[in-house]
Design a protein that fits this description.
- With 377 residues, the chain is an alpha+beta fold.
- It folds into two domains: 7-244, P-loop containing nucleotide triphosphate hydrolases (Rossmann fold); 252-376, OB fold (Dihydrolipoamide Acetyltransferase, E2P).
- The chain has helices at residues 58-66, 108-118, 123-136, 152-164, 182-199, 210-216, 234-239, 244-249, and strands at residues 20-29, 32-42, 47-51, 73-78, 81-82, 93-96, 170-174, 203-207, 219-224, 227-232, 254-263, 267-271, 278-282, 292-297, 302-305, 315-325, 329-336, 341-347, 362-367, 373-376.
- A six-stranded mixed β-sheet has the order 6-7-8-3-9-10, with helices on both faces. A five-stranded antiparallel β-sheet has the order 13-12-11-14-20, with no helix packed on it.
- The longest helix has 18 residues, at 182-199.
- The radius of gyration is 25 Å and the shape is globular.
Length: 377
């Protein structure tokens, strides 16, 4: 993206690891707890995603951040200022709505400028700020069009421009790409990330789309039943989930129930009735012998072979029952001798017609010790 506003054109704040600080936020409705003692911090120039299923509390937390709802208890500070009880207009926080909420009787430019007019700024100041942000989101050429004359992606960028033209301290995005088709959604994800880096303010996005969060966020918080169950970088949460809920919510995964039977300096061995072998697992932490655990393996971490492995652990056999061709990958459903069905994902490095594995074949599946995750049962 070119021709953008410089960092110095936007408000400058000191770099701060706790730029946004949410402390012990609880919210109850009629005795029902919606948010349960949530605490988290967001860095100065961070793209943070709140991710969770419908009803987990993520939108309520966003509304409390914006000032449209008040917490039952707890505090929120932004750039060192307590905004817990501050009016939404005075918080300096931008909000981009899911529906975009553009005024149909105003041009793109007028929509973007609307908030500045409400603040009764001088005309030349408003024009300069509007021109800068239209250039930033690459809408200058369609600035005089009406909302019904532009595409879904252009509407989304218009809504974004309107949200950032007043140069907020923080921008909140509520499911901002739910109305876009798959191609446009993926394209817009990168555009949003580029814009966020250029204007140098934190973005907090609320979404239930795990792929969206993984692609865009510097860090993300997984919410469940009003709590944040894990916070981390996308790869950390994907590779090292701290619970079965997080593991299953982020991507596909295979679970095997078992018991820890042996512990070494850097490994554990788990026996499971779900599979005809022992799991030899490295990087397991401190889990005592006889603990009931769940072993989790991502489908893309499992390999398929026609040949029987020669080593004693971390492989078993099964029968191919389903094959799903998905363009870049194929998904295999393999039934083990225990009757359990597992999922394996392989890249399509060769054409399907050239594959030597097909339906009803007996195959061997194998995995590396470091690709197993041990979770509490």
């Amino acid at each position: 993206m070119h021709g953008v506003a410089h960092h110095s054109d936007f408000l400058s704040y000191t770099q701060d690891e706790q730029y946004v600080k949410i402390e012990n936020i609880t919210k109850s409705y009629n005795g029902r707890i919606i948010l349960d003692n949530i605490s988290l911090t967001i860095k100065r120039n961070e793209f943070f995603a709140l991710l969770g299923a419908s009803g987990c509390g993520k939108t309520t937390l966003l509304r409390i951040l914006a000032g449209f709802d008040t917490p039952t208890s707890g505090t929120i500070t932004v750039d060192g200022i307590d905004v817990t009880d501050t009016n939404p207009r005075d918080r300096g926080i931008g909000l981009m709505f899911q529906s975009y909420a553009l005024f149909p009787n105003m041009t793109v430019r007028e929509n973007v400028m609307f908030g500045l007019k409400q603040d009764k700024l001088q005309k030349n100041v408003m024009n300069k700020m509007t021109d800068d942000v239209l250039e930033l989101v690459e809408l200058t050429e369609i600035a005089n069009k009406m909302p019904h004359q532009i595409s879904g992606g252009q509407k989304q960028r218009t809504a974004l421009a309107r949200s950032i033209v007043k140069r907020p301290k923080l921008l909140l995005l509520d499911e901002p790409m739910s109305a876009l088709d798959k191609y446009l959604r993926e394209k817009t994800q990168f555009e949003l990330c580029n814009i966020q880096e250029k204007i140098n303010i934190p973005f907090v996005i609320v979404t239930h789309d795990q792929g969206e969060a993984m692609a865009m966020a510097d860090r993300m918080g997984i919410m469940h039943n009003g709590c944040i169950t894990q916070i981390g970088k996308p790869h950390e949460i994907y590779e090292f989930p701290n619970s079965k809920y997080v593991a299953s919510f982020i991507g596909d995964i295979n679970f095997f129930d078992g018991i820890v039977t042996e512990i070494g300096n850097d490994y554990s061995i788990v026996e499971s009735d779900d599979i005809e072998c022992n799991f030899y697992i490295t990087n397991t932490g401190t889990i005592p012998v006889d603990s009931r655990v769940t072993v989790a393996i991502r489908p893309e971490k499992i390999m398929i072979s026609n040949s029987k492995p020669t080593y004693p652990r971390n492989w078993t056999s099964g029968i191919v029952k389903e094959i799903g061709y998905c363009g870049g990958i194929s998904v295999y459903h393999i039934v083990l001798q225990s009757g359990k069905t597992i999922k394996v994902v392989l890249p399509n490095l060769v054409r399907m017609s050239e594959r030597n594995i097909t339906w009803d074949d007996v195959v061997y599946i194998l995995w590396r010790a470091e690709n197993c995750i041990i979770l509490p049962s």
